[in-house]
Amino acid sequence: MNLNATLFAQFVVFFILAMFTMKFVWPPLMKALDERAEKIASGLAAADRAKAEMAAAEKGAQAELAAARDEGQKRISDAEKRAQSIVEEAKRTAADEAARIIEAARAEAEQQVTRAREELRNQVAAIAVKGAEQILKREVNATAHADLLNQLKTEL
């Protein structure tokens, strides 16, 4: 066997195999590797976008939470102010009602004093008439001496 011919034949077979591999095997293999690299790159980009969106969403959630907390504090403050105003109005109403009741009691007391004075005057006039009757030992006519009795009432 000839070493040169064998070497030449191996070179030709290697060249044909290299051409076949470059023509039919290498392009699909490179295409698959490129697609895989593209998928990995798009996955990493999507992960970065998701991380950024998650950070933005977390920041938004914190802002919403702070706004809700502030709104809650504001509502509590408004409720406390409203409760305070209701208490103040109730105090004012109670004070007005107390003043009205006191004024009504004073008026009633004044009327009772006036009635008591009038009744006392009538009783004093009746006692005076009876006393005069006793002194004179005779009956005094109250209708006949009405002017005298009225003058006596006014003096008392």
UniProtKB/TrEMBL annotation:
It is found in: Cell membrane; Endomembrane system. Keywords: ATP synthesis, Cell membrane, CF(0), Coiled coil, Hydrogen ion transport, Ion transport, Membrane, Transmembrane, Transmembrane helix, Transport. Its main location: membrane. Pfam families: ATP-synt_B. The keyword Transmembrane helix applies. It comes from the Bacteria. The keyword Phosphoprotein does not apply. Residues 51-126 form a coiled coil. The chain crosses the membrane at residues 6-26. Signal peptide: none annotated. It is a single-pass membrane protein. F-type ATPases have 2 components, F(1) - the catalytic core - and F(0) - the membrane proton channel. F(1) has five subunits: alpha(3), beta(3), gamma(1), delta(1), epsilon(1). F(0) has three main subunits: a(1), b(2) and c(10-14). The alpha and beta chains form an alternating ring which encloses part of the gamma chain. F(1) is attached to F(0) by a central stalk formed by the gamma and epsilon chains, while a peripheral stalk is formed by the delta and b chains. F(1)F(0) ATP synthase produces ATP from ADP in the presence of a proton or sodium gradient. F-type ATPases consist of two structural domains, F(1) containing the extramembraneous catalytic core and F(0) containing the membrane proton channel, linked together by a central stalk and a peripheral stalk. During catalysis, ATP synthesis in the catalytic domain of F(1) is coupled via a rotary mechanism of the central stalk subunits to proton translocation. Belongs to the ATPase B chain family. PANTHER family: ATP SYNTHASE SUBUNIT B, ATP SYNTHASE SUBUNIT B', CHLOROPLASTIC. NCBIfam families: ATP_synt_b (TIGR01144), PRK05759.1-2 (NF004411). This is ATP synthase subunit b. The gene is atpF.
